[in-house]
Design brief:
50% of the residues lie in helices and 12% in strands. With 315 residues, the protein is α/β, with parallel strands linked by helices. About 4% of the residues have low confidence.
Length: 315
């Protein structure tokens, strides 16, 4: 048995060290990555993947921690991928989410991993899809993915998650944000956190008004709006219930299969483009680019034809 096969076997048995090692191989783009994915794919696909996004300060980590407790109360094994901003100096993550989730640190049925965004836009790390597959194959019933918290650009999580929770809070301009199409398109469930603060009713009212304006066909999902105070656990049961209802709708409507097919298609495309970029990078030390550039300057060839030669060379 190879070392990767052994890691996969131990991870499936719930060994947190094996899970950590597999995710590290994913994050570091290990040469063994292809072998890792080949070993994981047959065992993945059963976990419910839930994305949690929203502006900084809305309480994503606190809500994630409360959701972990609620899912654990149902007897489910939970994995958390918390994507933190990267240090501009070391490239590492702050690990702030682990600090906020210390209450789950001793629970063997909860796995929490902070990942550095490493400059990747969209609120996620480039390795997040593969890391989610590791947790899925390791037997997690629910995988929670918490985004960085950079604001309106965090739409990538919707392509990765089965269900996306968009968190909002009063006093943070989210009444205006609700009017933006991207927010409405991303969210499957809306949670207005810190609902005990002034202005929460206004945010809920704005959200209800905007969601009513969305054109839907019969049978389409209608996004619920849940008021929560995550720091006290208030509204979390209702939030979990909304996630469960969305899961049931996904299965019944066939949307779950469609979303997952899109997700894997995007993953394949990203891997293929990454391989092409690596091949293209090899050309930078090659005389062919300089020769093509010289020919363009001399008017012998146009840039598009030159680019076609480059594509032909790398493919």
């Amino acid at each position: 048995m190879s070392s990767v096969d052994a890691l996969v076997e131990h991870a499936r048995a719930g060994d947190p060290r094996a899970v950590a090692r597999l995710i590290s191989l994913v994050e570091n783009h290990s040469p063994q990555l292809r072998e890792v994915m080949a070993g994981l794919v047959p065992h993945a696909g059963s976990a419910a993947v839930v994305g949690i996004t929203g502006s900084p300060g809305v309480g994503k980590s606190t809500t994630t921690s409360a959701l972990v407790a609620a899912f654990r109360a149902q007897g489910k094994r939970v994995g958390v991928l918390a994507v933190d901003p990267s240090s501009p100096f070391t490239g590492g993550a702050l690990l702030g989410d682990r600090v906020r989730m210390q209450e789950h640190a001793t629970d063997g049925e909860v796995y929490i991993r902070s990942m550095a965004a490493r400059g990747h836009l969209g609120g996620l790390s480039a390795a997040t899809p593969q890391a989610a597959r590791v947790l899925d194959a390791a037997g997690c019933d629910v995988v929670l993915i918490e985004t960085v918290g950079v604001g309106q650009s965090e739409v990538e999580v919707a392509a990765l998650a089965d269900t996306t929770i968009v968190l909002m809070a009063p006093g943070m301009g989210d009444g205006v944000q609700a009017a933006k199409a991207g927010i409405l398109e991303v969210g499957d469930v809306f949670a207005v956190n810190k609902a005990d603060h002034d202005g929460a009713d206004h945010v809920i009212r704005d959200l209800k008004a905007m969601t009513r304006m969305v054109e839907r066909d019969p049978g389409d999902w209608r996004q619920p709006i849940v008021a929560t105070v995550a720091s006290r656990g208030e509204g979390i049961d209702e939030l979990v219930e909304s996630v469960d209802k969305h899961r049931a709708w996904l299965v019944d409507s066939g949307e779950l299969e469609r979303r997952r097919r899109r997700r894997v298609r995007d993953e394949i495309e990203a891997i293929a483009l990454g391989a092409l970029r690596e091949r293209f990078a090899d050309l930078h030390g090659d005389d062919r680019l300089d020769m093509l550039a010289a020919r363009v300057l001399l008017g012998e060839v146009d840039p598009y034809s030159a680019a076609e030669e480059v594509v032909a060379a790398v493919s």
